[in-house]
Amino acid sequence: MNGADGISDIEGKVAMVVARELGKERVSNQTRFCRSRRGFSLEPRRSHTFKRFPVTREHHEKFCSRLECVSAKQSTSCFAEFERAVSYWTSETLRERAPQLILPFMDERIQQGAYELALGDEAFVSGSGEKTSIPVGGEIVIPVGQVAALLTEETIQVPADAIAFISMKSEKKLRGLINVSGFHVDPGFAGKLIFSVFNAGVQEIHLNRGVPLFMIWYAALDQVTADLYHGAAQNQTQIPDSVITNIATKHPSPQSLKEEIDVIKRELLTLRNVTWAIIALALTTVLGTFLSAVLKPSPPAIQPQVVINTATTTPVPPTVVPSPSVSPSPKAIPTSTSQPWSTASPNAIPRP
User: Fold this and answer.
1) Which residues, in sequence order, are CB contacts of 26 under 8 Å at separation 6+?
2) Band of the pLDDT at 302, cuts 50, 70, 90?
3) Which DSSP symbol is given to 204?
4) Distance between CA atoms of residues 196 and 183, nearest Å
5) 195 and 69 assigned to the same domain
6) Terminus-to-terminus CA distance in the chain, angstroms?
7) Cα atoms in the Cβ-side hemisphere of radius 13 Å centred on 199
8) DSSP H or E stretch at residue 74
9) Number of domains in the chain
10) Using an 8 Å Cβ cutoff, are 42 and 32 in contact?
11) Is the dihedral of CA 212, 214, 219, 223 positive or negative?
């Protein structure tokens, strides 16, 4: 709409409301949505000067009188639309309207304008192969680096005049659990919510059924919308197969990759130690053999030995051959009876 040209989204919404209340007349940039510490207001622009005052019925009537609202009824309707355009539901509004929108409803779950949703009876963790049914008091474990689909305990509904926003409680966020699914719920949705979460921490996370884990806020639309949600998740009560198919495979994570690298490092370290041990043993053996061969003393020379067998060998006396020029005189032969050869023949050879 031309009335929203050049102004912010909130101002544009207010301009649209004013245009509708005034019969779709053009609302230009001369109308500004002013902000102050006490509240919000609309003020016609006058020479770049903006007068700020909170949105009260009295001030709104002044504004409507400036814009020449047709009747008091039209002014009251316009004021209600202004309030609706930028408001989140307070805790008081939740206590009034949430019992018809959140089942089962627990009043103590309303905290600072939000309602706390709990983990339900069904979950699926990537790599597990099948859905996990969580009994009352049971838990689900999400390993490091894995994605999980978590079903809420409550069945919620978003009315046609509101939109919802969802998130996780900070206690689990600080441990590394991240919501990777959508962050809003469309008008007209009804059913249980499915949160897709990712464990980006360094340790596995345990989640118990029935413990508040998620949060939902309701915000009012500027009017009731006919564009309601009619998707496949309408009236869902369990995790569909399509969600499981998308996250069925076990996901590699930095932590799992680090663990695999650590295993490889340990194996390489063991292999290196064994290799050095084998090399040291081989070097020791070779060096010992070399030193023993170099430093060993040489054996003494072996002397030939003559073995004389006195028991079987008879000494042979040397043969004396007389010279042919000298013939022995018979007188030279001793005749002493003391010689053993005295009675022998003249040709006998004396024995020693």
Assistant:
1) 2, 3, 19
2) low
3) -
4) 11
5) no
6) 162
7) 25
8) helix 72-85
9) 2
10) yes
11) negative
Burial class (CB in 10 A: 0-12, 13-18, 19+), 184: middle
Q: Are 154 and 117 contacting, i.e. CB atoms less than 8 angstroms apart? A: yes
- Between helix 57-66 and helix 72-85 the angle, nearest 10°, is 120
Tokens of 101: 């929108």
- What is the DSSP secondary structure assignment for residue 66, as one 8-state letter? H
Structure tokens of 328? 């022995």
Q: Are 150 and 186 in contact (CB under 8 A)?
A: no
Residue that is written with structure tokens 């709104």 in the block: 60
100 with 242, same domain?
Answer: yes
Distance of CA 98 to the CA centre of its chain: 38
pLDDT tens, residue by residue, 51-94: 333 444 554 554 455 444 444 444 455 555 555 554 889 999 99
pTM for this prediction: 0.54
What is the C-alpha to C-alpha distance for residues 222 and 85, in angstroms, rounded to an integer? 4
Q: What pLDDT, on a 0 to 100 scale, did the predictor assign at position 35?
A: 41
Tokens standing for residue 178: 């991240």
Domain match, 53 and 102 both: no
Q: Quick one: average pLDDT of 238-261?
A: 82
User: How do residues 99-124 score in pLDDT, each as one tens digit?
Assistant: 999 999 999 999 999 999 999 999 99
**Distance between CA atoms of residues 150 and 177, nearest Å:** 12
Type of residue found at 296: K
The CATH number that applies at residue 206 is: 2.70.40.10
Size of the chain, expressed as the number of residues it contains: 352
> What count of other Cβ atoms lies within 10 Å of the Cβ of residue 78?
23
Question: Which residue type sits at 228?
Answer: L
Evaluate the CA torsion angle 214, 219, 224, 225 in order and state its sign: negative
Largest CA distance in the chain: 200
DSSP structure class, residue 316: P
Q: List, in sequence order, every residue forming a beta bridge with 135; answer none if it has no partner.
A: none
Residue type, 91: S
Bridge partners of 123, per DSSP, are: 132, 150
Q: How confident is the model at residue 32 (pLDDT cuts 50, 70, 90)?
A: very low
Domain that holds residue 65: 2-85
Phi, psi of 169 (to 5 degrees): -70, 150
